[in-house]
Amino acid sequence: MGDLGRVAAMTALLLALSLLCPGHAPPLASAIEDAAGHYQLDPVALVVLVAAESSCDPTAVNRRTHAIGLMQITLTGRANPEHLSEAQLMDPARNLDAGAKELARLLSICGVLSQALTLYHGGGKRGPDNRVRCQVDSHARKLLRRIRWIEQQYERERVS
Fold first, then answer.
1. At what angle do helices 92-110 and 25-39 cross, to 10 degrees?
2. Residue 91 belongs to a domain with what CATH number?
3. Fewer CB atoms inside 10 Å of the end CB: C or N, the chain?
4. Spatial distance between the Cα atoms of 1 and 13, rounded to a whole number of angstroms
């Protein structure tokens, strides 16, 4: 990606953070940019996922599933193959890296962001052969609408 592409991506990332994570933008921007760049993911998609999973709260813990942090990683789930501790998962950069790595893995299985988002949220089903069935659920559709909305906001600001 050239310098102009990086500037555009960072501008879109900051816009997404300001719209979905007000008050959290400065501390999260570089960690999201790093994770997105490392795993070749759309940084806006990561912001949307962080907002949906944890409301941008790096200390969020789901009472039902015990998922931790920005990307809601469980201690024993597939997104935590390094067996990071609860304290380590509270670190925004480590949590984002683990979640982005898992999203990239799911994207490599399905090939489409909408289906990877469904699997990330636990909506995937297994067939009789125990293989993951890539599909799209209402939660993923909602996240995709949010991504498109941010892209539209970015285009409006860019043109004006």
1. 40
2. 1.10.530.10
3. C
4. 15
Q: Residue 61's domain spans which residues?
A: 3-108+143-159
Q: Return d(Cα 120, Cα 141) in angstroms, integer.
A: 13
Within-domain flag for 132 = no
**Residue 92 within any structural domain of the chain:** yes
pLDDT in tens, 56-115: 999 999 999 999 999 999 999 888 889 999 999 999 999 999 999 999 999 999 999 999
Which token pair is 72? 């809601």
> How many structural domains is the chain composed of?
1
Q: How many CB atoms lie within 10 A of CB 125?
A: 11
End-to-end CA distance of the chain: 24
Task: For the chain, give the mean pLDDT.
Answer: 89
**CA–CA dist 49, 55 (Å, integer):** 9
34-53 per-position pLDDT tens digit: 999 999 999 999 999 999 99
Q: Where does the chain show beta strands of DSSP type E? A: 125-126, 132-133
Nearest Cα to Cα of residue 148 among 102, 124, 114: 114
User: 61, 68 in Cβ contact below 8 A?
Assistant: yes
